[in-house]
């Protein structure tokens, strides 16, 4: 027994207590390091898209799941509207609403907005815990603690999980690592229990983020590699068949996913590997019942027949449209030049651009150098689990190079493999430290074999400690300066170094909420306008921007007639301004439009309007309040 303060604990209990303490510190660090924006700008939703998520979550908590699932949102993309239940991944909203109701059940009164703001930091703490258990299955507890500490502060993950970043990625990384952890447990044990837990974790992942497609292709790829390397066994068969069957059925319960798991090309790899598992199991059964010569003849015949049938059925299904082709985003992952040459709208998004070398160091720092060390260790100690993490690391590295937003998928595996690498380096050199032992060799013998063993070991440990400290400082600085600034609240440094806050966006949205009718349609900044200003978002202007010039006038005039005919502003004046602002005066117009334009010319006076650059049409406007006039002029600018 060993004394520890006033406690008397065994070595095993001390070890467990120390691990629990370090893991708790990593979880607290993961939560607290994401609160810079709250301390600096108050509790506020950051980006424009999270405002829509917040509005749907608020509706869910107030109205319940049934109304939420059947909710038709007439504020989004007017005049089409949006069916919310079938067009979103509801996992984020359901998680927030469940947490909100649990807290209120225990009489912890908190607003749903604050739940949304702090949800991502909370799940980042859970991610650190899951990372520890996942890495522990790959190597040991020491590597798990290092990986948990690294993922707590890695900028590549913090960029999507700071307080106020209420988006799907905030909980998706936790779901992904939880699914991987359950998969490794299922592979090691061959247990239906762990396989079912993996399927449930996969269902949570599907309900939370569209990136589940990466997961459902990585696990089948792992099984295929195990087949090719001769490592396929009954454990793998039970694990994969349970995960695929149960996970596919559960994923189809998400309305936004529907029948895609059995129809889309992105899911066909999982189905194909499932079929290979059945063939492999059947072949093993035949091998045990037949002699070698009979088995070879039957095997070649069956494989040829089954291959021809599968290829024929697959070709027919693809030609008839029963299996949908890959989307442009997935094609661009396999062929980086595909989107640029065929779908420019995808290539124009900044998140879809290739990653620069500087971005890797900025978002990962030390992990860039320790990642190969972890890979080297896994290659030297091949097992079913290490093969999986090698494939995860290599594939995510490639995809992150093609698309910068997938740095989020790369960051966790970088932390895991770097934790394994650092743990192995420290373990190797800690053994070389000079420790007094009964069987200690003489000084002469030590010098002849390893003259400066103790000094080299001490130096390497100090170097690793220095690198880990610099990694922590770098990650904290990046989090504070680069990833903790909301788009809706701006800041700048004054001449004296003080921070100046610009809250003009929210003030403008609040002004719109209190000074415009709720039926107003706004074309710019739609998501925050819907949530903050209680206005309707319009889809017509967005579609007009992609309409050929000769047809854009008809689209816009239809929009103006629909939305503004009941208002006091003359619709003829609006048509003229649209015509001149789009530069269509030289195009041939229909007789009706020509007649309207001639009527407008007759009513013009000699004054020039400062906004449109044409003669004023003030006499066409009936008297109305100055506030309404300001709103209409503001709408002209937006249009």
TrEMBL record:
It catalyses: a di-trans,poly-cis-dolichyl diphosphooligosaccharide + L-asparaginyl-[protein] = N(4)-(oligosaccharide-(1->4)-N-acetyl-beta-D-glucosaminyl-(1->4)-N-acetyl-beta-D-glucosaminyl)-L-asparaginyl-[protein] + a di-trans,poly-cis-dolichyl diphosphate + H(+). Residues 595-623 are annotated as: Disordered. Belongs to the STT3 family. It is found in: Endoplasmic reticulum membrane. PANTHER family: DOLICHYL-DIPHOSPHOOLIGOSACCHARIDE--PROTEIN GLYCOSYLTRANSFERASE SUBUNIT, DOLICHYL-DIPHOSPHOOLIGOSACCHARIDE--PROTEIN GLYCOSYLTRANSFERASE SUBUNIT STT3A. Its EC number is 2.4.99.18. InterPro entries: Oligo_trans_STT3 (IPR003674), STT3_N (IPR048307). This is Dolichyl-diphosphooligosaccharide--protein glycosyltransferase subunit STT3A. One of its GO terms (biological process) is post-translational protein modification. Component of the oligosaccharyltransferase (OST) complex. There are 2 OST complexes, OST-A and OST-B, which contain STT3A or STT3B as catalytic subunit, respectively. OST-A and OST-B contain common core subunits RPN1, RPN2, OST48, OST4, DAD1 and TMEM258, and OST-A contains DC2/OSTC and KRTCAP2/KCP2 specific accessory subunits. OST-A complex assembly occurs through the formation of 3 subcomplexes. Subcomplex 1 contains RPN1 and TMEM258, subcomplex 2 contains the OST-A-specific subunits STT3A, DC2/OSTC, and KCP2 as well as the core subunit OST4, and subcomplex 3 contains RPN2, DAD1, and OST48.
